[in-house]
Amino acid sequence: MQAISKKELKKGIIQLSGTNILIKTQVKPEKICQVRLVPKCDSYAIEVIYNEPESTLDEKQKESVASIDLGLNNLVALTSNQPGFVPLLINGRPLKSINQFYNKRKAQL
């Protein structure tokens, strides 16, 4: 929080110290934990990190729940609590094999 202007932050604007860069934000100033300037190939990304309370489901929303797990060996595992829903499991190994062959061929060339 030392690299941003606290006076501007109270107005809902993030100003990086020593620059004229102004970024409007809707995040309340007391929630902001950190502002990072991340270098990319030919540009910079400004990341604003803030605290957000964890949300919970109410009883009405708990009626329908689905879950997706992304991975490598199992590319997707999908399940739900809906009656008649068939869980889905997609094998990711063929895709890993194609990617490995591509990387090997690229290295050879």
What does this structure look like?
With 109 residues, the chain is an alpha+beta fold. The chain folds into two domains: 6-50, no CATH class; 65-108, no CATH class. Helix content is 18%, strand content 34%. It has two helices and seven strands, in the order H-E-E-E-E-E-E-E-H. The protein has a three-stranded antiparallel beta sheet. Strands 1-2 form a two-stranded antiparallel sheet. A hairpin with a 7-residue loop joins strand 6 (74-80) and strand 7. The chain is flat, with a radius of gyration of 23 Å. It starts with 5 loop residues before the first helix and ends with a helix. The mean pLDDT is 84.
Q: Which key features would you list for this structure?
A:
2 helices, about 20% helix, about 110 residues, two-stranded antiparallel sheet, flat, alpha+beta, 2 domains, about 35% strand, three-stranded antiparallel sheet
